[in-house]
Specification:
The protein is mainly beta. It has no helices and eleven strands. It has strands at about 5, 10, 20-25, 35-40, 45-50, 60, 70-75, 80-85, 90-100, 115, 120-125. The chain is globular, with a radius of gyration of 13 Å.
C-alpha cells in the first residue's frame, strides 16, 4: 500500500534551490502533522522541518532554519519543502512522514511518525 510520495529532488550546484513535494495518494493529510527528514551517506537519519495540521506552526532544525521553508496546502493535500542556498552538506535522501496527532510545536522525532514515503534524492555539488 502506498503511504506517502515525495518528488522534486535532483542535482543542483551550491547556492541553488529545489522544491520538494509530499502527497498522500490514498488518504487526506488535512489533520496530520507532517515532517521532513533526511539521511546523508554514512550518517543517521535526521529531522529537517515539521508543520502542524493547518500549517500555522512550523519547526526547523538548526541547519534548515533560514534557508528552508516548509508549507502545507490542505486543498492540494500536499506538503512542500522549499530549499534555498543549498550546500553540499544538504546532500541526502529526503523523506516525508505524517502523524495523525496534533503536537505544538510540531516535532520531528522519528518514533512519532508511522507513515513514511520512499524518499527523493537531493545532490548538491559542483
Amino acid at each position: 500500500q502506498v503511504q506517502l510520495v515525495e518528488s522534486g529532488g535532483g542535482v543542483v550546484q551550491p547556492g541553488g534551490s529545489l522544491r520538494l513535494s509530499c502527497t498522500s495518494p490514498e488518504s487526506s493529510l488535512r489533520f496530520h502533522t507532517v515532517a521532513w527528514f533526511r539521511q546523508a551517506p554514512g550518517k543517521e537519519r535526521e529531522g529537517v522541518a515539521a508543520i502542524n495540521s493547518n500549517g500555522e506552526r512550523t519547526n526547523y532544525a538548526n541547519g534548515a532554519r533560514g534557508r528552508f521553508t516548509i508549507s502545507k496546502n490542505n486543498v492540494e493535500n500536499t506538503v512542500y519543502l522549499q530549499m534555498n542556498d543549498l550546500r553540499p552538506a544538504d546532500t541526502a535522501v529526503y523523506y516525508c512522514a505524517s502523524d495523525p496527532t496534533m503536537h505544538i510545536p510540531p516535532q520531528f522525532l522519528e518514533h512519532l511518525y508511522a507513515t513514511w514515503g520512499q524518499g527523493t534524492q537531493v545532490t548538491v555539488s559542483l
